[in-house]
């Protein structure tokens, strides 16, 4: 996984529930190498994080090395809990939390997540993407949408997170399409643009009927030969449409940036365009790295 | 499971996806014995139904015996497909479908389900419960709600099913509470009436915000110590509330009968009462048996 000739100036780590991704960085901020691991937070006890990290990036260490990590690694079930900052707050953390290590040359700083008390909400990892986006777009005000398993809508003003809201849209799509009776109607892959648009339109025009639409996919598959591709795309449209209606206080009249995996971001941008809302697509991995870099620079002053 | 002294006049069978339940009936319609099996349609190939049935009720057979069966046993993946009747239609089927058997004394008649083309919908098993309810309440007009994994709302007029709609509420509750991140927030059991009422009220007053409410359960658990019992009850309230809003064209201004498992039926009756809609609770098993009996009587003439 790693190149033994690489000696990192510092190491950037994005450690989520399912995966870990690390970059060997030069002191000046160039990416020297990249490593990935499927040892996500979800499967690690607190004392298993250091061995998992060293297995992935140990070869990069030559002398005292700083690691900056974001994501679920800082949750209560992670390596060490990095207590949430509270909105309103900057996304560039004032204080990082040092994780316990045994390797003599390793210092691991964990970036805290952000919480909101009312309505209750939390994020871990997205704050670093936002901070990276703001580092590249100084003074930007507006709303950032971060689509994914748990999509976030985040209101940014004067370099601070003012408020945010999480939607379980990605996880609902995954669970409903794979774990319910709809699995018989929905293809594992495949797509149909018109069916996506139809689902979107149904939820946008009559959001209160979402609960009634779901079983129709199964019935339309049984009785009317609705294809697995069309059912898949229509479910996605129904769920993203329902999210858009509920997130309207966020996107209405705002400039929007969408940070996420490319295919999914495109769906959100199409959905927003259907409401005449323009949105800018932003590369997620580059933004995460920019956020980790901003945290490193601040730490090193 | 069975009593070898029982000789059935005929046998009533309710065969669903997960379970099978059978009753030995006297010619005059008295229940002589009951048997259950966990060999549901979901795990049986077509040629495995007869052995599964005989394993449960073979001892009841003394001479030529008629079996009347309803439920998923008649689906395309079942013992034999009993093609759907189309609405508008009576729930007492005009034609039963005979399943292939090898036992010389066994004749198995399967009750067809009901379909609706627009909006597409299907039922299998509920038609028999409705037919049993109507056999006990001749001339009844109104709306029948059958809560369960896939809750049905059914408009009955002049002894016919006029239209119906299925909601995946039970399956969504089960899947969301067990398979998503909310599993960390939701107790496996337990209840909180006030939290149910709060979830119900949230969905009834702002149904378009359902997508936004779900992750709040997780965040309220993390940040505000929302109990697992309260989160469980609130999720139930949110989903039943969303169903009620979408099913309003069914229940508004109608008399309502609720046929289902007792605890779940009580929740629907409470939810309807919150909208000032009175509803009558009906015992599900007795209704199924009454429907199977009505089909037997019609067959025998």
From TrEMBL, chains A, B:
<protein>
    <submittedName>
        <fullName>2-dehydro-3-deoxygalactonokinase</fullName>
    </submittedName>
</protein>
<dbReference type="GO" id="GO:0034194">
    <property type="term" value="P:D-galactonate catabolic process"/>
</dbReference>
<keyword id="KW-0808">Transferase</keyword>
<dbReference type="InterPro" id="IPR042258">
    <property type="entry name" value="DGOK_N"/>
</dbReference>
<keyword id="KW-0418">Kinase</keyword>
<dbReference type="Pfam" id="PF05035">
    <property type="entry name" value="DGOK"/>
</dbReference>
<dbReference type="InterPro" id="IPR043129">
    <property type="entry name" value="ATPase_NBD"/>
</dbReference>
<dbReference type="InterPro" id="IPR042257">
    <property type="entry name" value="DGOK_C"/>
</dbReference>
<dbReference type="InterPro" id="IPR007729">
    <property type="entry name" value="DGOK"/>
</dbReference>
<dbReference type="GO" id="GO:0008671">
    <property type="term" value="F:2-dehydro-3-deoxygalactonokinase activity"/>
</dbReference>
């Amino acid at each position: 996984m790693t190149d033994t000739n690489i000696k990192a100036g510092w190491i950037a780590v994005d450690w989520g529930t399912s995966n870990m991704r690390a970059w060997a960085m030069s002191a000046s901020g160039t990416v020297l190498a990249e490593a990935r691991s499927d040892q996500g937070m979800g499967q690690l006890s607190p004392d298993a994080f250091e061995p998992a990290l060293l297995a992935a990036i140990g070869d990069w260490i030559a002398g005292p090395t700083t690691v900056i990590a974001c994501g679920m690694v800082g949750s209560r079930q992670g390596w060490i809990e990095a207590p949430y900052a509270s909105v309103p707050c900057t996304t560039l953390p004032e204080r990082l939390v040092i994780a316990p290590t045994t390797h003599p040359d390793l210092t691991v700083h964990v970036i805290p997540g952000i919480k909101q008390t009312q309505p209750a909400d939390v994020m871990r990892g997205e704050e670093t993407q936002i901070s990276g986006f703001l580092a590249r777009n100084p003074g930007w005000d507006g709303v950032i949408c971060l689509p994914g398993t748990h999509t976030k809508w985040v209101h940014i003003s004067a370099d601070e997170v003012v408020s945010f809201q999480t939607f379980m849209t990605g996880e609902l799509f995954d669970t409903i399409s794979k774990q319910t009776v709809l699995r018989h109607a929905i293809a594992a892959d495949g797509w149909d643009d018109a069916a996506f648009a139809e689902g979107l339109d149904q939820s946008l025009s009559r959001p209160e009927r979402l609960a009634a639409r779901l079983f129709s996919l199964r019935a339309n598959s049984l009785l009317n030969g609705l294809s697995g591709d069309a059912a898949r795309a229509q479910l996605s449209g129904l769920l993203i449409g329902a999210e858009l209606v509920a997130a309207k206080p966020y996107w209405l009249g705002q400039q929007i940036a969408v940070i996420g995996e490319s295919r999914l971001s495109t769906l959100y941008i199409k959905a927003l365009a259907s409401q005449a809302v323009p949105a800018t697509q932003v590369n997620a991995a580059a933004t995460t790295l920019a956020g980790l870099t901003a945290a490193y620079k601040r730490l090193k002053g």
